[in-house]
Amino acid sequence: MTQQIPSTEPELTAVRNFRDVGGLATTDGRRVRHGVLFRSGHLAHATEEDAAFLSSLGLHTIFDFRNAADQKLEGPDVELPGVRNVNLPLSDPADGSGFWKMVRDGEIDQLREILGDGKAADRMIVSYRTIIRERTAEHARVLRSLAEDSVPALMHCAAGKDRAGLSIAVTLLALGVEREAIVADYLESNAKHRRYQVRRSSSSSAGYSPEVMELLSPLFEARAEYLEAAFETIEETWGGVDAYLERGLGVTPEIRERLRERLLD
After folding, report:
1. What is the 3-state secondary structure (H, E, C) of 78-97?
2. What is the DSSP letter of 31?
């Protein structure tokens, strides 16, 4: 039996972008059950109090979509007793040799070259499309695991916005959640207390200047156009959500029904 968490958000000290996905409406009038599906940023810096709260959720599985570079930068997740941790690295929107080093250390002219004139937003859109097309095995594993035994579950990446955001969106599509509700949940990552904290090196004279932050903002914002690009890719590649789930992910109607039984009221 899963815990019903309060409707007010917990005050987590060192885990950003945490929320319960419960309450979102499906197209047939049902709702995602509270206390079974959570999302957040990484758990590497969780305090003892944060860990105690997370332990109180009765989690079965934590899906960590970070890659080795992320884990080297932030550290491994804190260990929660009795909780299974599944690492399924997904493509990072900023993949590329030296890209994050440039974000942290780059001077203004370098940042203008790689991020200016819409290049940063374009990079994000390409990444979202690529994850949908190429990470079908990972998303299939997540949905099958949830349908079998892996709830309550927490999904996270580094910021809890892109890779976790897409994985949550795919899960919600499989549950039949209304598209507008999926986008609205995704955009909640923009709340000030949820935003990933940009790290810039003191070695860069450009520091955190307004122009630098404007250039970096597309990388750290949740934008509807990014998620819409993922939805468009599903339509263009498979012809619709049902075909994407069944042909792309191998998620049969029977698996979807088990998923709905576990996650919906």
Report:
1. CCCCCCEEEECCCCCCCCCC
2. B
d(CA 61, CA 59): 6
Among 191, 181, 151, 184, which residue's Cα sits nearest to residue 62? Answer: 151
What whole-number distance in Å separates Cα of residue 46 and Cα of residue 218?
Answer: 26
Residue of 167, 177, 131 whose CA lies nearest to 146:
167
Structure tokens that stand for 130 in this block: 């690529």
Tokens matching residue 118: 């819409």
Q: Return the structure tokens found at 207.
A: 């520091």
Distance of CA 252 to the CA centre of its chain: 24
User: Could you tell me which residue, 248 or 218, shows the higher pLDDT?
Assistant: 248
Distance CA 43, CA 64 (A): 9
| Axis crossing angle, helix 163-175 with helix 253-263, rounded to the nearest 10 | 100
| Domains of the chain: residue spans and CATH | 19-263 (3.90.190.10)
Q: Is pLDDT at 205 greater than 60 in this prediction?
A: no
Beta bridge partners of 40: 156
pTM above 0.85, yes or no: yes
Q: Is 62 left (phi over 0), alpha (psi -120 to 50) or beta?
A: beta
User: What is the per-residue pLDDT across 168-180, written as a single tens digit (0 to 9) for each?
Assistant: 999 999 999 999 9
- CA distance linking residue 70 with residue 43, whole number of Å: 12
Position with higher pLDDT, 84 vs 103? 84
Higher pLDDT, 6 or 155: 155
pLDDT in tens, 3-13: 333 334 677 99
State the average pLDDT over residues 89-115. Answer: 71
Label the pairing between strands 37-40 and 153-156.
parallel
